[in-house]
Amino acid sequence: MNEPNVPPTVSTGSTTEDPTPGLTRRGFLRGAAVAGAGLAAVTVAACAPGTSAGWTYPPGGASPRPSGEPATASPTPAPTASPAGPTPMPSDQGGGQHDDQAEAVVKRFLDGEWQSVGPSGNEPLAPTIDGDWKVFEMDCSPFDWKIDAVKPPVKAVGFNKTWPGPLLRVVEGDKVRATFRNDLDESTGIHFHGQEVPNAMDGVPFVTQKPIMPGESFTYEFVAKPSGSHMYHSHHNATDQVGRGLLGAFIVDPKDPTKRYDSLYGATQDIVWISNDALGGFTINGRGFPATKPIVAQKGETIVIRFMNEGVMMHPWHLHGMAMRIVARDGYPLGSAAFTCDTLGVNPGERWDAVIECRNPGAWAFHCHILPHAEGPAGMFGMVTALVVQD
Ligand SMILES: [Cu+2]
Fold first, then answer.
1. Of the ranges 83-87, 114-118, 264-268, 273-277, which one carries the lowest mean pLDDT score?
2. Domain for residue 329, yes or no?
3. What's the whole-model pTM score?
4. Separation of 89 CA from ligand 1 center, angstroms?
5. Rounded to whole angstroms, how far apart are CA atoms 318 and 247?
6. What is the mean pLDDT of residues 74-84?
């Protein structure tokens, strides 16, 4: 059942075994241009600083070598350097086939594969209003879901046929009525993870309710509290059902507007990042690299990322180039215990809110640092995306 994107083999490390260490091919790309994805051309920066050989990507592509820069940064003639840019290192010149594969998969990412794969999850679902209730109506149903553009679709289950399901957003104190119609061929039950609901609304079959049988509906009613980053997901046969996508984000904004992230931190983007690690391998918001969506910000912009782990193992999220300020755990503000880091471990069931000041221009890898979840002999896969900071 657990089929990672590629076998969990540790990378042989093309970035560290560069036979020409005087070159700048440390890190994963340099001087790249992002095509598609609605992104302007940006520089893709390596994780290690160094002199730039001014690579362009794709070779001969849109991002010209800065004038005056030598084609190589090393006095040693380099087999990889050419006036055309980052020519893949052919096998007979020591690079090996993994370089070609690694470059090809990054190109798919830079070409905006996430846009062509199909509908995205986490789309906001506006409630209908019934008196003082905010009403959400969803189905639980099976569907085919593409993890990326190449792999065959997986047999997913989810809310309203996306993985993650719709993003539900309310304000602390709102009366919430959420009805789930079960269109699966098995029973289910839905739990609002992190909410202080009445016991009968907790969604655990045989503990607080009968299972929702195929063809039936069940309505959960509660007052939204506490505020913060929460989730809703199956709590029945959950290893399989949540592992296949029956999950979504439930955001409760603080009643006091001055406590919200746009007011507190001037955040202009509020990004939900739900990881999973079962069906479809290692995914971010239901997609594996190179079909993960890049985060694009302007230099000086402040963004918020809400990490949520719906998988069965911990994932340490590592951002290159900038630090993250961690301001809340499981929806609870950390206050004076807020801390700064560049790698944040997120355990199953946890939510952590990170504030990032996008002050360092470039395209920065942003990935799980359990390396078998992110990079293998055929390049990067799975839990990888990029934070693109445009100057
Ligand atoms: Cu991981």
1. 83-87
2. yes
3. 0.79
4. 29
5. 24
6. 34
